[in-house]
Amino acid sequence: MKIDILTLFPEMFEGPFDYSIVSRAKEKNLIEINLHQLRGWSKEKHQQIDDRPFGGGEGMVLMPKPLFEAIKDLKKSNKSAKVILLSAKGKTLNQEMIKKLSTERGLILVCGHYEGVDERIIEMLVDEEISIGNYVLTGGEIPAMVLTDAIARLIPGVLVKENATKNESFSLKDEADKPLLEYPQYTRPADFIGKKVPSILLSGNHEEIRKWRMQKAKELTSRK
């Protein structure tokens, strides 16, 4: 999986991608992440990449030409890549979308900024707009980190154990194949300041434990 990230602030990614699962995926060469400074495609004075919106209004809008040139150039070395714009106006990200995107051969993530992106770029070059929630962030960098992290852990070989994600929230399913939140988890000690681990988990009866976990997952999903 090759992911190209187009951003005004590549420095923001240095920490999140250098640790834990994403770092492991990079070390195993299972994922390639390239950060690209959008200003590098600007031909304007002082590498300007934004301008005032036609029709008036607050803020600035990312100009079409730098984005157009950048995406076209990135497509040359990542021909099958799907272009994703991280935007508050996009579809809300969920686990099913993550699963689908994790099967792509490549992605180009465009981090929106300011008041947004010139609509013509969206119409011409963007395959999908994605939001990570119904709120507004300063830019698309944090959503790009979220998307990359969620995708990386689904790539075969990244996690140590096979089917490690099978019983996680949203991957766990009930009898009707509807997604559930993960059941409660406990570890040692069995008695912590008077709070005891449910006795069923100490029984060694794997079938009864499975039933208990499924019931608790259903209760948790219904409550939350």
For the structure shown, list the relevant keywords.
about 220 residues; alpha/beta; 2 domains; five-stranded parallel β-sheet; two-stranded antiparallel ribbon; 9 strands; elongated
Note down, in words, how this protein is organized.
With 224 residues, the chain is of the alpha/beta class. The protein has 2 domains: 2-152, Alpha/beta knot, CATH 3.40.1280.10; 166-224, Trp Operon Repressor, Chain A. It is built from 6 helices and 9 strands; from the N terminus they run E-H-E-E-E-H-E-H-E-H-E-H-E-E-H. It has helices at 20-27, 64-77, 95-101, 119-125, 141-152, 206-223, and strands at residues 2-7, 32-37, 50-51, 61-62, 82-92, 106-111, 128-131, 191-192, 195-196. The protein has a 5-stranded parallel β-sheet. The protein has a two-stranded antiparallel sheet with strand order 3-4. The chain is elongated and about 70 Å long. The relative contact order is 0.15.
Structural class of the secondary elements?
alpha/beta
Q: What is the name of the CATH superfamily of the largest domain?
A: SPOUT methyltransferase, trefoil knot domain
Give the end-to-end Cα distance, rounded to a whole number of Å.
34 Å
Give the overall form.
elongated
Estimate the mean pLDDT confidence: 94
Order of helices and strands: EHEEEHEHEHEHEEH
Q: Trace the largest sheet across and list its strands.
A: 2-1-6-5-7
The count of domains is 2
Layout of strands and helices, then pairs:
Blueprint: E1 2-7, H1 20-27, E2 32-37, E3 50-51, E4 61-62, H2 64-77, E5 82-92, H3 95-101, E6 106-111, H4 119-125, E7 128-131, H5 141-152, E8 191-192, E9 195-196, H6 206-223
Parallel strand pairs: 1-2, 1-6, 5-6, 5-7
Antiparallel strand pairs: 3-4, 8-9
